[in-house]
Specification:
The structure is a single chain. Helix 1 (10-26) packs across helix 2 (32-43). This protein is 41% helix and 6% strand. The chain contains two helices and two strands. It has helices at 10-26, 32-43; strands spanning 48-49, 61-62. The chain is mainly α. A two-stranded parallel sheet has the order 1-2.
Length: 71
């Protein structure tokens, strides 16, 4: 999978910690495993594709189940 898998590295871990803390502070904790995906996307400059946009409030999200979401 070389070149096709994004690493969950120190930068992504920092994003994960921030996202988790923000969710708790808002009273809406984020799902930990989904937040790993979001943090990895942020660390690598990618958009987050999810069918659950409310879990990623405030982030650049694409819902693949909705039409017309081109950047």
């Amino acid at each position: 999978f070389a070149g096709h898998v994004l690493a969950f590295d120190e930068v992504a871990a920092g994003h994960w910690a921030r996202l988790m803390a923000e969710g708790h502070a808002r009273g809406r904790p984020r799902p930990p495993l989904d937040t790993i995906i979001a943090a990895t996307a942020l660390a690598h400059g990618c958009r987050i594709a999810t069918a659950s946009p409310p879990d990623f409030a405030g982030l650049d999200v694409l819902n693949p189940l909705e039409a017309g979401q081109a950047r």
